[in-house]
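Notes on consecutive records. When two proteins share a document, each keeps its own sequence and its own token line. Never mix them. Below: protein one.
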Amino acid sequence: MSERLAPERNLALELVRTTEAAAMAGARLMGRGDKIAADQAAVDAMRHVLNGVEMNGVVVIGEGEKDEAPMLYNGEEVGNGDPPHCDIAVDPIDGTTLTAEGRAGAIAVIAASERGSMFNPGSAVYMEKIAVGPSGAGIVDIRLPVKRNLTALAKAKQVSVSNLTAVVLDRARHAKLIGEIRDAGARIRLISDGDVAGAIACAWPDSGVDILFGVGGTPEGVITAAALKCMGGDLQGRLWHRTDDERQATIDEGKDPDAILGLDDLISTENCFFSATGITTGDLLKGVGYSHGGITTQSLVMRGRSGTVRVIEARHQPEKLKKIAPIGYM
């Protein structure tokens, strides 16, 4: 009889506590018009819980360098110091403006992968991206015209292009892109912020969206790659520079500024984990809810090696939480 291996530890089931904490802390300031205060509250809550997780983590994707961001900064060590050794990517609020204005779709996110496997974008702030779900994996190519990608995806999904919906950040830089999508005959869903949730939705059944196009944050691209790796989707990116100086900075860091970055370039292992918790209700997740019975949260929790995606709905008792965590959730 062959020896059975014990199930490996699913770190995502512990990381979800960090995104729940960040979401609950950030949601307290929903609609208050102060995105900095909301982000700080979420960061403080995430850090407090994260440092209790059994791991030796280093933040690769954070809120900037230590001197620039007194938050979860690039290079910060997190966890209790014990193995496993992990790269960490965090965005305590993906959609700070959405939170501050009380708009839909803000989430708290974290990704982890084994040490040395996560792409470090360095000074590159923006990335051109194309993202799809499992049915589009290996089908689209960021180097091809928009119409050819939509036609290929429609063929793979066995639908017409007119039945596809593309997600695009509503930015002036995307005017030409939006025109090309319309000319191809596909529908468009414009989002004001939060392209992590937009890209994940492409891989989520019955989300109503099929593909994401456009330029967004490079850190968000790396975080999204971890999620899509778990879900069997696909993402390609290409660093996008606003100025010649930004392009030269990428070259000086030893990176090819024109390289096409696939999932394996952004997260070079299947041993990765992802968690997202809704802050304000959107197409992907319900937001933080408040009632006499306590606080409710909804999270997506994923593991790369197994491809398991869990939806976790939790009810929290703030009076008890206060006794174990000095964070104001109410």
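Protein two starts on the next line and is unrelated to protein one.
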Amino acid sequence: MNSLRERMTRFMYGRYGSDQLSKLYLGLAMAFLILNLLTRLGIFYLAGMAFLFYGMYRSFSKNIAKMSAQNQKYLTWRYQKTVKYSNAKKHWAQRREYRFFSCPGCRQKVRVPRGRGKIAITCPKCHTEFIKKS
């Protein structure tokens, strides 16, 4: 058992290994293969196998810089989507007390209290002043 572990360690030396993007591809492969079992459509099988092979290719690749850059791009995209979702959730929770406007100069989101009538809003980022009804 110990020699198998050593052989596997030697094999993986200099290879990229598993990361978040590889895990995503392997998860998508599993989902498509399960869909194939349920629907018996060949397209799901082909998509599942493609994701499986590409996920394995990424894990065993020796081009560490390229795979790391792809993973970083994926993590940045995922972080941006998480922040957008979090902000939308906050806006939804505060919709009764506040109104949200975009600054016409820089597109910065500005939060103002509801029920104040027409007010002059000054953007905190670019100091553009605009009038809106709260």
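For the record: The longest helix spans residues 64-93.
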